[in-house]
Design brief:
single chain; alpha/beta; seven-stranded parallel β-sheet; 22 strands; about 25% strand; globular
Length: about 525
């Protein structure tokens, strides 16, 4: 079977002043996973990014990490090179020809590579960028006559800055050499409390100074992106409470005080502010995970599922708010403001692809109008400002026309043996209210309800969409014919979603709400296999 997956490069984050442990870590943290005791089956144990990718039934990868040797000092090349260019067989990153012959016998498609930049010297972002460019060149030469359509990259934290350094060095060539990039908690716009006391800076080893400087919000030499931002997905962590470094969380809270004049929020993953982990114009995914450690951005199942759907998804989905009305919950004696959010979860995978909640501090708002027509900060405009001037850019809509979420789904991602060809997303809709004068309560729940959107393939034309308020017609064994009959019979638990009359093909409208809140939402679906 021909593997259609592009080569995948995994890049770790900052290792600290002493990187001996990182150098001894074979897979640079991407082999660490998480156990979820309250879940079962496939959702119980997540074995880590590498092993999960190697075991994948949908898009399996082959480990090619040992094809490249990384060294602090120059190495001479072999006399036999099996067609490899001589400049790739000597230096500090060299091809191991016997290993390459074994691993790449079938080509480099579907291979997985760990970029071990901490084995290289000197410790500078520029040097790490050079090494990544060289690794991409090695992979391209290993394609063995296959069509090369670029590599995919998943990078954690500073690894995203390493990827950006490589983009800067590649310039216009980056578009043909790199397909897509996923960054996990990367401080694209710096770290808010990067400015450290002089004495602390002087105490750091000189070898780590350039890496620390990479987090400077004012640094510009690695900030430019000669690459389509729509091909970069930024995964943004929101759980600062679980991060082990209390100094980092305190620093972000103090930075919020300086930037926004309040200590009420810590919109970060514990180390990187939510506003810093995003790129203007790039799609984003919120996950309620901390920056590093157990069940974090790099070790959680959510990060893997989101990344794989971005790299291999069959359909691109956008969810927007069309109309809204809050009908209860406004304080008569205080000053009410409302917040709105939606979390998105796919069927079969018990993990969010997008998460909004009070704990995550990432709802859209505040709204003081009952119909949510308040003018919120423009996300792209706010993210284009210096970090200290942008405030909490995460509270504005994700894009034009009140965009709530955009993401990718995989219609083929189903348990083995499952014949149901429908795609189902669960939408968890929230509306909250708080009194800003301190007279009333600060955490009132106005509305919350879960809905299930089901896309049923049709023999001709695009899919037909249904909205469910329960799982009765989504259980194993339920057929598309039963769903269709229930909707036509006006079963209160399922209704057919209607295409919009806005002249937008592939867009459907549906209503949500109940006591306290009603809204019209718009869902658009694009088949990326044909677009």
């Amino acid at each position: 079977m021909v593997n259609s997956s592009r080569p995948l490069i995994l890049i770790r984050g900052f290792g600290g002043p002493d990187v001996q442990d990182e150098q001894r870590d074979a897979y640079q943290g991407f082999n660490n996973g998480t156990v979820y005791p309250k879940r079962r089956g496939e959702n119980y144990i997540y074995e880590g990014f590498v092993l999960r990718a190697l075991k994948s039934g949908q898009h399996p990868y082959r480990d090619a990490t040992n094809v490249v040797g990384y060294y602090a000092e120059e190495q001479s090349g072999p006399t036999e090179h099996d067609g490899w260019p001589e400049h790739l067989l000597s230096g500090t990153m060299i091809v191991d020809v016997p290993m390459a012959e074994e691993v790449l016998r079938q080509g480099a498609a579907g291979t997985l590579w760990i970029y071990r930049y901490y084995d290289l010297l000197p410790r500078t972002i520029h040097r790490y960028g050079e090494g990544l460019v060289r690794l991409i060149e090695i992979i391209r030469h290993g394609m063995r006559g296959e069509e090369f359509t670029g590599v995919d990259i998943v990078a954690h934290s500073m690894g995203g800055l390493v990827a950006r350094a490589a983009l800067s060095q590649l310039g216009d060539k980056s578009e043909e050499l790199i397909h897509r990039i996923v960054t996990l908690g990367t401080p694209h716009r710096g770290i808010a409390f990067q400015y450290m006391p002089d004495q602390l800076v002087k105490s750091l080893p000189g070898s780590v100074a350039d890496e620390i400087a990479a987090f400077d919000p004012d640094r510009t030499d690695i900030r430019a992106i000669p690459f389509p931002t729509r091909r970069i997905l930024t995964v943004v962590g929101t759980d600062h409470r679980s991060y082990s470094s209390k100094f980092a969380s305190l620093g972000n809270r103090v930075a919020t005080l300086i930037d926004d004049g309040t200590l009420s929020y810590n919109r970060s993953d514990g180390l990187v502010k939510q506003a810093s982990a995003q790129i203007p114009g790039a799609p984003r995914a919120f996950v309620h995970k901390c920056h590093g450690g157990r069940d974090s951005l790099v070790t959680s199942r959510e990060a893997y599922e989101i990344a794989m759907r971005f790299l291999h998804g069959t359909h691109f989905v956008r969810l927007r708010l069309d109309k809204a009305e809050v009908t209860r919950g406004r304080d008569l004696f205080g000053r009410s403001e409302f917040y709105f959010g939606v979390s998105v979860k796919p069927r079969f995978i018990d993990f969010d692809l997008f998460h909004q909640s009070s704990d995550a501090e990432n709802y859209y708002g505040p709204f003081r109008k009952d119909d949510f027509t308040d003018e919120l900060p423009d996300l792209a405009e706010e993210l284009s400002k210096p970090l200290s001037a942008s405030g909490d850019a995460t509270t504005g809509w994700a894009g034009e026309n009140r965009l709530i979420w955009e993401g990718w789904v995989n219609a083929s991602a189903k348990p083995e043996g499952m014949v149901d060809k429908t795609v189902v997303l669960r939408l968890d809709v929230h509306v909250c209210e708080r009194d800003t004068l301190g007279i009333g309560f600060s955490d009132n729940l106005v509305f919350r309800k879960q809905y299930y959107v089901q896309a049923v393939p049709e023999a001709a034309g695009g899919p037909r969409l249904y909205l469910h308020t329960g799982e009765r017609f989504l259980a194993p064994g339920a057929t598309a014919e039963e769903v269709r009959a229930a909707a036509e019979g006006e079963d209160p638990e399922v209704q057919r979603m209607e295409p919009t009359d806005e002249g937008q093909p592939g867009t459907w409208t549906f209503k949500v709400g109940g006591t306290g809140f009603t809204a019209d939402l718009l869902l658009s679906v694009t088949d990326e296999r044909t677009s």
